[in-house]
Amino acid sequence: MEMEVDARGLSCPQPVLMTLEAIGKAKQGTITIVVDNETSTENVTRAAQSKGWTVLAVDKAANGINTIRIEKK
Amino acid sequence: MKTNWFASKSGIIAVGGLIGAVAVLLQYWGNPANMGICVACFERDIAGGLGLHRAAVVQYLRPEIMGFVLGAFLTSLAFGEFKPRGGSSSLIRYILGMVAMIGALVFLGCPWRVLVRLAGGDGNAIFGFLGLAFGVWIGTLFFKNGYSLGRTESKNVLSGLAMPALMLGLLIIRLMFPPVEGQPQSGILFYSLKGPGAAHAPLAISLLAGLLIGFLAQRSRFCTMGAIRDVLLFKQMHLFSGVLAFVVVALIVNVILGQFKPGFTGQPVAHTQGLWNFLGMTVAGFAFALAGGCPGRQLFLSGEGDSDAGLFALGMITGAAISHNFGMASSPDGIGPHGMAAVVIGLLVCLAVGFFHLKRES
What we know:
Strand content of chain A: 25-35%
Oligomer: heterodimer
Order of helices and strands of chain B: HHHEHHHEHEEHHHHHHH
Strand content of chain B: under 5%
Distance between the termini of chain A: 13 Å
Helix content of chain A: 25-40%
Shape of chain A: globular
Number of helices of chain A: 2
Number of helices of chain B: 14
Strand order of the largest sheet of chain A: 1-2-4-3
CATH architecture of chain A: 2-Layer Sandwich
Radius of gyration of chain A: 11 Å
Largest interface: A-B, 21 and 24 residues
CATH topology of chain A: Translation Initiation Factor IF3
Number of domains of chain A: 1
Largest sheet of chain B: 2 strands, antiparallel
Structural class of chain B: mainly alpha
Largest sheet of chain A: 4 strands, mixed
């Protein structure tokens, strides 16, 4: 099952905390995290990678909404 | 995916080191000893320069602060990261700014000055650093339990422009009413004739240093509070490596310039009451953690269009005025007559903010 984390409008450390919580629950699979600023994008990808997850893609929409997909097999 | 080198490991270390070097070089160029950069002190000096408090030794419109905001503003525009936003418990953030400043002025410095004082050999800053870390740690306990000031939303462009415009306005009145030799007032502005407020680098150097740091910090997300928080909360050293580089480079440059003077007594703009140095920074660190950024980071965010961060900074300026007017700020002789009350009330306010915002959004 694919989990989704909506961290729009939140600033650090909350997007990272929410991502780590999702990682803790999911253990493996794919997680999508939605944020609305570059700092959170960098922080979330850094945190996910430090937990051994792979960043599949970061889709950057014109309205500043970034969708990050991470995976662990 | 386009990567941002400044936000990489080597990037944050380079940025931390460069800011540390600039900080102590500013002392060499005229800023007060062990106060090359201190966001709290400089905002306090701005409050004094505007006449919001009348402590005659700390009145000067510090161009570094204007440079921080305007540098971050121009950088965020250039990189497409300028984004007007706000509405996340704005008044609470303003009050947290006041509390943070009141705590910082019991210690006599913000987290930036903790680093600068450590690099200058001021042993009292060890208590400040420990207090800061303790305050941030209390903040992380709240975050672990779902603390949140709520989501921001996009705002009208004017909300985002307000803080940079305010800083531009300050810069304009600084140019209109420059200091006059031997005069405590120039037009509408106040200028210290002695004390730390009278020590400053030339306007152009201060402003350029501020703009440079605004650029570097906006790109790298440098944050002195976040550095400690991320270690405690995530065991992540990324931002902390920038802070370490800051101290190491500042220390080396201080030694080269003959500015390193280790000891506890007789340190510039510092007192030796260890407990209050610790507790003052505990309050400040707690407030910075709850607000999500150190005083420098709040200025950079305000330049990016975050009006809540702008309100936090304005809260700090207000807090400085209150602190001096009410005898809560310390001096080199020790804490002010109402410094203890300030610490207790500050802690209670932070605890109230923390507990009232524990509920998770559904």
